[in-house]
Amino acid sequence: MSDYHFDFFYVVHGFARLMQGLVISLELTATAIGIGTFSGFILALATSSPNRLLSVPTRLFVETFRCTPALIQIVWFFYCFPMLANVFWSPFTMGAIALTLNLTAFNSEAYRAAIQSVPSAHRDASVALGLSKWTQALHVVFPQALRFASPVLVSNAIGLFQQSSLVAVVSVEDLMYQGKILAVETYRPIEAFTTVAVIYFALSFPISQLAARVERHYARLLA
Amino acid sequence: MNLSPSIIIEYLPALMRGLRMTLLLSAICITTGLVLGFVVSLMRSGTSKILYACSTVFVEFFRGTPVLIQLFWMFFCLPVILHIDIGAFLSATIALSLYMTAQASEAFRAALLSIGSEQKDAVMALGLPRSTTLLHVILPQALIRAIPNLLSISVSLFKESALVSTLGMTDLMFEGETISSATARPLEVLTTVGAIYFAVGFPLTQIVALVEKRILRRIAL
Amino acid sequence: MSAAPFLEIRDLRKSYSRGAIPVLNGIADTMTKSDRLVIIGPSGGGKSTLLRCIMGLELIDGGSIVLDGRNYIARTDNGKTFIDRVLQRQVGMVFQHYTLFPHLTVLQNLILAPVKRNRERKSDAIGRAETLLSRFGLASKLRSYPSQLSGGQKQRVAIARALMLDPKLMLFDEVTSALDPELIAEVEAMILGLADGGMPMMIVTHDMGFAKNIATKVLFCADGTVMESGDPQTFFAAPKAQRTQEFLAKILRGTKV
User: Fold this and answer.
1) Are the Cβ atoms of B219 and C102 closer than 8 angstroms?
2) How far is the CA of B39 from the CAs of A96, A145, B51, B142, B157, in angstroms?
3) Which residue from C165, C166, C189, C195 is spatially nearest to C176, judged by alpha carbons?
4) Helices C106-116 and C122-135: angle between axes, nearest 10 degrees
5) B76 contacts in A (CB within 8 Å)?
6) Who is most buried in A84, A158, A173, A196, counting CB within 10 A?
7) Rounded Cα–Cα distance for residues B137 and A214 (Å)
8) ipTM score assigned to the predicted complex
9) Mean pLDDT of the region B70-96
């Protein structure tokens, strides 16, 4: 088929740089997940609020992030945000913000569905016990919403890890970026890109399998 | 900060050209993906162990890796392997079609599995032959149940199509980026690009939600 | 009305997980053509499994079933279960959860099996379906989808669907258990009508009033065996076995029988 010699020597040589890129990717992912897991819940409360002054703008925010490509979000943030806010932060920061907002929007939809399935009896009970609205939200609704929403939250998180590869387009030196550099420098795209793909896969697949197994286990428990 | 909306008007035709390309590419990849996805889902639900293994590897890989790497791989690596020059359009089409295939096959498979086992009882109690069961009971229900999922996957593909701009394909995103840097007016141009994507994506997601509700009403026992 | 046995169940055994979970431990009984057999008992006692085995939905592990004098289901010596498919087609079953095909109209549900299995002509099948539905007051629902029907209507359509195949024996597995109370009566009336028309049937039910009304013979099934059987009057008035008494006491507490 080909007289192309698979030569992983170059990849091994550049593996250290790939790993550096991976660290950046993981940092971006961790930041987005760390913030997005909680901000998504807060946003969900806002979007389901009976107060239209609150729910309408926040719903618009969520829909904007859900109905547009992640790439445009990242590119927009990279070029336009500094102009608007008159700040000059690193590409990494820009990417992190864009990814976090994206994840927050998607998570809020998951939470919104979950909040609605928290039995209203619990909310009635909270009122009967005289709990403040915030206590109710934090200690009664949030834990249960988290439980109902966790399958979607997990798959959102894994999806975000893969979408983090987009920051390479705005020159953030993540795994994807390093992979592209490596491919171009060594004239060995197959080895380089295959390795990058395998690294992404090696991290995503086990986690999604584990998540599925945990979900099945809990489904049986709570059935 | 001075905004200049006239830029948008001046370059709107170019952006529309890009949108046309985006829609064309999306349509091709969605259609191909749906057809192939159905075939793959059959492989995943059938009895042949080899077919199951191959299709599973395929599906898991295309769902477990970033779309960007899939695009880059097809664009950079396929020409080397096949010794032919593959342009951006073809490699993008291949990559996105395969991605859509993987997603669609899972949607079909989930729909197939969601058909309750009580249907099996009814089918046996009525003594329906195997072919009838497959053709008249299982298949129609699987297709109907898969529609909401397939629609939302299609909208996702429309959004992922923006990535082909990284290969230099002249889609909406590419036009936007080019114009934005040429005119040094990223705010006006990129916001417009985002708005155009939104103007297409938002109604589509609303339609998906509507279809889902109507189908659930029909199929719900 | 012949008094010769129509259905004979001999030492029926069935277990799950290769014998680890026994469900039927030697069930034996007979019924005649004019019998309406009602089976009651606690959950998990094997009632549904018994019906499912008679329908051939589950494979028995031991014993045999004789229908109309012919070998219907039997466990052969080499460990396989034999089912006479021709006889199987003469048995009809209706389940707790209607299991109508949701994507087909009522009419399509009814004619699917006659057309596809019995190669009946579509026009003939449609005619029979219309007649059958009219008989039970459901003619107006011909072109409706299951999702547009009430629970009681769905169940009656399910019964009609089974009747389209001209069964010689009807099995009803807790067909009213999933229905709202006010919808139960119409379904039970339909089954009573069938019984009066001379259809032999086996009914698993929790509704003791209905059982008393329709049964010619009552079976109390628990732990996979028939603990007691008899005609309805003596059965409900003076059950012999201890277990039966306990069960009836729990069920009938507060119920006017």
Assistant:
1) yes
2) 39, 37, 11, 13, 19
3) C189
4) 130
5) 183, 189-190, 193
6) A196
7) 33
8) 0.88
9) 91
